[in-house]
Design a protein that fits this description.
Strand content: 15-25%
Bound molecules: 1,4-dihydronicotinamide adenine dinucleotide
Distance between the termini: 28 Å
Number of helices: 29
Number of strands: 33
Radius of gyration: 29 Å
Shape: globular
Largest sheet: 10 strands, mixed
Structural class: alpha/beta
Amino acid sequence: MEYGPAPESDAEARRWLASHREQQFGHFIDGIWSRPGKTFDVIDPSTAGVLARVSQGAKPDIDAAVAAAKQALPGWKGLSGHGRARHLYALAREIQKHSRLFAVVESMDNGKSIRETRDLDIPLVARHFYHHAGWAQLFESEFAGYTSVGVVGQIIPWNFPLLMLAWKVAPALAAGNTVVLKPAEFTPLTALLFAEIAGEAGIPAGVVNIVTGDGETGKLLVEHPDVDKIAFTGSTEVGRIIRRATAGSGKKLSLELGGKSPFIVYDDADLDSVVEGVVDAIWFNQGQVCCAGSRLLVQEGIADRLTTKLRARMEKLRIGQPLDKAIDMGAIVAPVQLDRIRGLVQRGVDEGATMWQPSWACPTEGYFYPPTLFTDVQPSSMIAQVEIFGPVLVTMTFRTPEESVALANNTPFGLAASIWTESINLALDIAPKIKAGVVWINSTNLFDASSGFGGYRESGFGREGGREGMWEYVKPVGVGIGDSGLGTGDASSRGNATHATWESGHLGRGASGPNDRANAAHDGRRPLRVPAINRTPKLFIGGKQTRPDQGHVRRVHAPNGALIGEVGEGNRKDIRNAVEAAHSAWKGWGKATGHLRAQILFYIGENLAARAEEFARRVDAQTGCGEIEASREVDVSISRLFTYAAWADKYDGAVHNVPIRGVALAMNEPIGVVGIACPSERPLLGFISLVAPAIAMGNATVVIPSEPHALSATDFYSVLETSDVPAGVVNIVTGAKDALARVLAEHDDVEAVWYFGAAAGVKLVEEASAVNMKRTWATWHRRDWLDARHGEGREFLREATQVKNIWVPYGE
Ligand code: NAI
């Protein structure tokens, strides 16, 4: 049977475009349209015809939009959660009322099929606004102690234009932020339609502002000083630029970047379902999907059977005009993307892989590319490693489940994965081993507003959707209030000069610590005292006290200048050794039960309690805070260890209520090796407050203690040694904080870096982290570490974990 064409009408869409004079659009700022400025064409990729002209946002436009958002902020944030819920509900309703118009405009603008925009994109957009109307309603109770971040700059790509807008705008508004959004230059139209409809629906002026333009406009938004957070979806390359540009600015950042997601098929899988899964994984949206299952990994015995079936299915895929309701695949978004796909496919052929395409031809008008299958692909080849972002599937084979995991993780990305097997045991064994933020079992490309989406590794950080996503748009009340940023937060810049000095390669006179001065003052009349035993300052790496690589030491002084001890001067090599130790420790520690981790944390608390007075004396000697305050610091440190012992087996994930027959299991997973640069103040409590949550959640750590007051941490070596902490779970490298933190931030095998210190250090860490897009938690805001509201709790646990959503459909 042949399908005839079944075109959807574009009349209403054309009427809407024509309602803007000469199909020209300005920006939507402060509730009104600006006059079109310098404009560029918006092209229908299926015909190469011009649909409209939109304005290229320049500095005055971004300035005006950010100013409008800033002005609207107090009112929007001050509105009750219920008030914001009503607005979000209105948006959801309006999207449903205009759903066909949105679907058609989206298809025309992007080239994707009307079947997808009508049945997937737009319903999900509405769902997102409904779901987040709910979070707005519950905001005061479910996010008690948190407030909105402020003005949010949002930059989105062209592959799901309206859906990405919804993923960004809905949570931002629910949490009480105001927004300046820049759609992608290829696909700005549904964002403009949304702006118009939002205005008509009564969203207050300035709460949602849309500025169109290319990367230059995006750059202006990223760099604007009054923007408090940037949320970005797009290429890893631009993500890296944004990471560097926002480094040290205090802007909160979430990045949803590229992927090269594995689609793993075991030999007991239902192959007919697999074939349909592959169609959804890589030919949905012409493969222009960040989480596309673009690497098909097949168990050897069934590989030939599966590729034969796939070829037969590909032969039947229908490619054509996006508004035709009977087509499977539409057009590629733009000539530049088409060229990129062609170039990479040619590269694959040149590299020796076998390329196969169906026998039928693509339409000649517009930008179309056929579904493409590569076999005989080397895991290290270009097409197996880079994101093609087109309908191109590469196939590789494996023999054992172990090999499948190794192959799946052989990528710098970590966005998503699909696992196909009839054995739930195998599926649930493999899912946690795959480094990816979303795992679909016997399914693929499932999304829902209730379930977080986002990546591991170079696929970015932060989640969109559900409660997980809401955290990206809030900040704790009270933290950072009154701080001005530059150089305020940390005592180390001052401490450097007065409390600690770097002494190159010598041990000083006698180097006997506290008695140094006393001995020097000996005048010959008093009887000689027995000298203190000369202690060699060490680092703590791999469970052992080790000498610093260069043999240098750093003196630690009391506030009055008296020398009270020495610590090792760690360097790049020491950090590298520590990271290596942490990595091997993590292999076991990351899998240890919460119960075991709890026991060890309780035990550390117990052992610290046994030496509480000694630790209090040391805190007082270094900081001069007085005995009472120092004892308090130790007591709170013990309590904090108990807090994280308590949490170790209780920081549960969630079972998301997704609208399928099945569940999405949101698992909190450790991140891996976390580098921690402690604040200068509260030498013991600052250290414990950061190390305890990190290890409680199953991470291994490399810790740079307080730079001026490092002795509390070095005294702690022996507490760790006597508390059954496995070697390498906590590694401590004393020395120059910022220099060491930079090494951590640049290190490829460190998965996250926390930095508490001065603004310059924050910038340095954030910038350096762009190397492998590691997660950072870097802040110059001072905290009251003694106060449990600022010094412990869920904020720390969230930073110590990443969420993996595992979708498990069930039933026949
Ligand atoms: P892109 O990352 O350049 O563009 C995404 C958005 O960022 C657009 O709105 C763009 O205007 C903006 N932008 C570009 N440069 C910027 C800058 N310096 N500062 C701020 N904003 C900036 O992606 P593009 O060029 O559209 O596609 C290139 C490749 O990126 C694709 O071939 C694909 O591999 C990948 N990609 C991945 C996406 C994903 O969802 N992971 C989405 C889009 C593209």
